[in-house]
Specification:
Elements (H helix, E strand, L loop, with lengths): L6 E2 L1 H8 L3 H10 L6 E3 L2 E5 H21 L1
Antiparallel strand pairs: 1-3, 2-3
Helix pairs in contact: 1-2
């Protein structure tokens, strides 16, 4: 099982992504942005899953630039 230290709160993730916490709340409502889990009513972000999501975003941007 993963240790709790691998998970970030919305505020911590917003800080890491240089975004406002409200942006992550909006992304969750829109089902976009980094993957999250809800544990005991608390939203948490797995840092490893977020790193993979960020890599996927870079690949998508590169593909768009190549196609354009």
């Amino acid at each position: 099982m993963k240790q709790a230290s691998q998970y970030l709160t919305t505020a911590q993730m917003a800080d890491a992504l240089h975004r406002a916490p409200e942006t992550l709340v909006r992304w969750r409502r829109q089902r976009i942005g980094p993957p999250w889990i809800t544990l005991h009513g608390r939203v948490l972000y797995d840092s490893a899953a977020t790193a993979r999501w960020m890599e996927q975003q870079q690949v998508a941007l590169i593909r768009e630039a190549a196609a354009g």
